[in-house]
Queue: 2 jobs
Job 1
Amino acid sequence: MAEVERGRRKVIHAVHEVNPEVSFVTDPALRAVENKLDEGIPLSKEDGVALLQTQDLHTLGRLAKREKERKSGNKVFYVLNRYINSTNVCYANCKFCSFAKAEKDGAAVRMGADEVFAKALETGPNFNQVHIVGGHDPRQLSLDYWLPLMRRFKEALPHAQLSLFTAAEIDYLARRHRLSYDDILVQLRDAGLDNINGGGAEIFSARFRKLVCPNKVDADNWLKVHEVAHRVGIASNATMLYGTVETLEERVEHLIALRESQERSPGFNAFIPLAFHPDGNELSHFGWTTGLDDIRMFATARLMLHNFDHIKAYWMIQGLKVCQVALQYGADDMDGTHGSTDEERIYHSAGTQSGQYVDDREFRRLIEEAGYVPVRRNSTYEEFAYDWQPEEALVGAR
Amino acid sequence: MALADLLDRAAAGGRLSYDEGVELYENAPLHDLGAAAQHRRMSLYPTNDVTYVIDTTINYTNVCNVHCTFCAFFRPEKHGEGYTMSHDDVLGRVRWAAEQGATQIMIQGGVNPELRLEWFERLFARVRIEFPEVDIHSLSVSEVVGLAHVEDMPTRDVLVRLKEAGMKSLPGAGAEILVERVRKRISARKVKPDAWLGVMREAQLLGMPTTATMMFGSIETKAERIAHLDAVRSLQDETGGFTAFIPWYYVPFKTPLRGKESTGLEYLRVLAISRLYLDNLPHLQASWLTPGLKMGQLALFYGCDDMGGTILEERVVHDAGSTNEATRKQLEELVIGAGFNPVIRDTYWNLRPQMALATAS
């Protein structure tokens, strides 16, 4: 019976050793943040850094959830889309990248225009967005490739918005064709460009870019491309690649630069935090971001970016589980389904465990379970019934 | 009673009734539920320590006559893919694990009617003699009941003999959901809820501590999850023999039952309500193996004070399509990254500060 006593004593010991001094873990920095939010005062850099470090995850969540609901009420968005990497030929040599290949590399994939078009229609025409990004490919990244392809998409699939390129690719195109951002963006707009993807932002800090992506568009020009695009009537998104050499201050400065840009030339719809993936690149030693990093990043973005309508939790990046949890930490968008035969290669070459495709019914289940109403959208957040389909005549165009 | 009052009471360690548990679980906002659970956890263990055990699971046989529909691991008797390890094979795996610093060995498998009690007695005796430093935390209730059938003797007598052979404690597996309606659908041939609790009671009264698990996310309702917590809590009131509660969710890929995988939010809610409802259970374990390391870290903010085991070798969950693996270093880094101190423990929550942390080297 001594052993019974021992087992029992262990339990009683644990349960009665309650320390009445311990309160809910509360972070005074969040109280100050809450007051600012109530008064509509933009958060400072110091506030942002405090948010990224807080242990008070539940107060952080309450605040971020409240701001999300102020922006988008009870809606959480997703898009039926097609995702294509048209080329992985790239000579920018960014250190975080596992995707880029030299032209002569056996693993180089460069799709012809017909191939891209066919790929988009592989699983039928019922989608509201074509999302294409590629490398700085000296052959493919050219107006004579893209303008005809864009017009072809618009003619065959007027219901699908074109969400093409990142600012890095636009900058490359402009330099290649010796055109100003204004001139190139007007040409792209006239050919049907609806939205510029948010990639290529990485971390704006000059220190970071010099270390990690010296051959890519610099921060001023990244912002300028988006600001000009907004002025000529093209919408866009913004991203940040977190989890490598950047400091927390640099993350927050990045968010502040975005929010100032949005003041100067509004047109960003969503901010998308991109977690670094470590497989097969020169920054592998930084490893994976953690669940806590991810959640704090979503919440901090929601609270810092008062003039952004949407914070996106992209399932492919942080995983479906964390992205669903993010809906309680400020995110209001799960991005796109991708087509079931699409093959995303940027994050998959860097080791993501996410699949290639998420059924829209799965999005709806996850969103409803989080207590929100799932809303199907396109790139510019026009809403569609969940069972919306393009008309017969358009389907015939394939 | 208002949700806020229920949360305050539960956060202070007060008892929730079944109805109150259902009410909180179904209706409390996530952050309120999480904050209350975290408050309770920090009150119990104000030191910021998060423990884990270096362990291995040895699935000695996949032959099983219970045939649960949620399981992708077992093979029926006479199936070509069935296997049973030799004693030497098991001992080799124990040796390998002990060399990695394991202090806990979980020898668990199917309910294989070919294996007699004496097979286990000889195996455990060898482990005890050759590796006295490892604790044999082995066999689930189902296997004990299976042995009782084979030997035609009471389960208590089986436990007495296993204990004499060196088995020190039982993992809480096979509990699934301790509600008859659910078990009829997912594990019709497994022991009934009362029998599971009965064997646990016998073991605990014999001085063998046990854990308790819950497999959620198959076909049970939310209220049935609370009924499960209630059954565990009642037995704990009686015996005090449970060391920890370990909720994990059903992995539907490759199983006959199929269905949807549970979600990130559901996992966090289950953890929080478990911490609040089980006012008499000392520890709540994060089961990072199925939800992944990211969710395993977030669990530390929803009431968990323990990261479970390193599980150097495991086959049951992997066969159902789960791919997460963790090294000690990764586990410790997650704990440190969340602002806690990783501490190595043994099966019985004796801390082992003399064992070096993987992050220390």
Note: The longest strand of chain B covers residues 242-249.
Job 2
Amino acid sequence: MASPPFESWLRPGSSGLYCAPGDFFIDPPGPVPRAVITHGHSDHARAGHAAVLATTDTLVIMRLRLGELGQAQALAYGAPLRVKDVTVTLVPAGHILGSAQIVIDYNGQRAVVSGDYKRHADPTCDPFELVACDLFVTEATFGLPVYRHESDAAEVQKLLASLRDFPERTHQIGVYGLGKCQRLVKLIRQAGYDRPIWLHGALRTMTDYYVSRGLDLGEVPSAADAPGKLAGEIVLSPPSALGDRWSRRFADPLAGFASGWMRIRGRVRQRGVELPLIISDHCDWPELLRTVIETGASEVWVTHGREEALVHELSKRQITARALRLVGREDDAE
Amino acid sequence: MKAFSQLLDRLTYTPARNAKLLLMRNYFLSTPDPDRGLALAALTDGVPMDFPLRRVLSGIGESRFDPALFRMSRDDVGDTAETVALIWPDADAQGDAPRLSEIAEALSKAGRGGHAALLTQWLDRLDATGRWALLKFLSGAPRVGVSGRLAKQAVADAFGKTVDEIEELWHGISPPYTELFAWLENRAERPSFSLTPVFRPLMLAHALEEEDWQAMDPTEYSAEWKWDGIRIQVAARGGVTRLFSRTGDDIGQSFPELVDHFRFDAVLDGELLVVRNGEVAPFADLQQRLNRKSVTRAMLTKYPVHVRFYDALEISGEDLRMLPFTMRRERLEAWHRQHGPAHSDLSEVLGFASKDEMKARWEATRAGGIEGLMLKRRNSPYLAGRPKGHWYKWKRAALTADCVLLYAQKGSGKRSSFYSDYTFGAWTQKDGQPFLVPVGKAYSGFTDEELARLDRFVRQNTIDRFGPVRSVTPRLVLEVAFDAIQQSARHKSGIAMRFPRISRIRWDKPAVEADTLETLKALMSSVR
């Protein structure tokens, strides 16, 4: 007995992924009446929806970044919720604080829309939980076999070694403000570094929120309040503040960047980065394949990233795979 | 291999010279022979590798990996060797990483068919950075932003010697340089070579400053024209002739006609020029001959090279360097009368009766198409490096033009947050309208305060961005100083400036009053 195609109830389109029997969009790029949001990064969580369903953390993050939301409904991890004709369950995705996979059960079929996710351990959010399903919707930011993230502890050691080699220089590390920043601080703390870690103003709100949620990050003062030039200290800033006016206040700043893209030398050079740290909040290639296979899904949709390679590899493994090419996803926000 | 791969990895990302020196110094101090010597070879002259890397890599790439995935990965990474390094599976238990010496030895024994198997088993024993560094090493000359000179400087620093001491030995020793390190660590005598010609570090000149000129007693100095070629040291002995650049690179293979004719026993200092019928050709002609691995017969006739000697460091095995300049010059003249080979002559010593006459000589250089004067103290010995108070170069006065700032780009290192590289233009007509065409680019000549103000100007007047380049409202006039204007087919304006720098920032001057392209082109004709 053949099941109806998934497209009959879950439709990719220019307004995002639309679940017809539940009448909601998932991570839509523009305002819609009803949205379910996987996590707070700006290419997934946009302003202007009339009603939003997400985890509590994602809703708070959205309010902090976007201002007041319309009608907001919080849903805890693992609690099933009936939404019209479907059941929606949010399950940890391991990407950032509050990030969720959206599990949709309809007519005996199960689809999992994973948003962005990773399998590497992350001390700042709940770990990814595997959900067996029929349709798995995945991203493929690092969907090429050359992308294999290194151990994050080893990458942090590279930073600490550089501080020993160049104690007269400020180590300014570019990080994205939501997730990467707090994770990197925590990783540095786990490596035993207990000096203050100085923050750019743009990183303050999210970091304070993570701390208010019980994450111990040690001393994280604002770089703007620093007494001197912070020689030999660690400063975190958005990537855009590397090698620009803001960095002139520091002692011969050494630019680092924490991102999965730092595995590729051309990208390191292009950004003028002196200390690349391969630390990613996305799956690398082996994790992508492993996850897809472990879900047991008979069909896989790839939302964004290097979808061509992943579709090719899955097809070789007799898994039906299709690239959605969803609009509005940013490759670079890593 | 681990230490070497970490060194290469960090060198590629480290822009600052001192930081590179620190990284290399630590490596040479902590790595045993013969590995460090092989690394030194890789960072300097390159290690000659009989290893068809490109062919072996593409063979391995196609047989070990899904061709479609490999192609997509290659497109994403942009480099085949790096793609192989990254895509290669990590072994569950990495064996001992191969040492550089193990690699070099295995290669020397490997037959044609053995390359792929060797490479495969080495790659299996390394991590991603190690695999990348191995492929760099096998390419013969890893380009990691280090000049041979800088690597030698690091070796010198590590063991408390000067880089000149290393240079003097360099062409008599070979990889893995164990006798060099033995000497540096005081385990052996300094290597000596009586039979091979080696490089002697050059004596360099300072630019003549106003106070040098004021203090100068003309009777103490000898003057020559400043030739517009490249500095060359000819070292010949025992039937072997070597031509060294000013940094000690052996450039003989680009100039076989000189190597063939220069059969003598001496070390001489001079200028390499293209000379036709006794006339020195423009520098651009000489450029046609530089950095060529092989030279065609047509090149030999079209761009005939010539050496104009001006000093002698050694003649018939006798070291002349401690003699005063005038005595070395006499020895040089005597030698040249007797042996003077084809393709060579001597740089003329210019007479002058007074300081005023010396100055008049200098003032006439531009009209004469000469770069300037060299002033050499008569009693100076030949000293390595750039000692103060002995030799001066007195370049002809610069030309200037008022140009308009068009584009700016950030610098590097300490200037990485400043827009410090400026492209400027001159007025011309396009479709009957006044139009600014770019005529040059400069990134020096201003103070730190001026740089801060220029940076602010760029940010406040940006009208467009193209990647790292900002285009600005064309309203700031820069007075640009330059040595010459040359014809150029590669530039839209049809001209190229030689040695441009910002001489003044004309905050006061309206852009419409800047110079025209025609004015600049007229300067070209006046300079021959």
Note: The two ends of chain A are 43 Å apart (CA to CA).
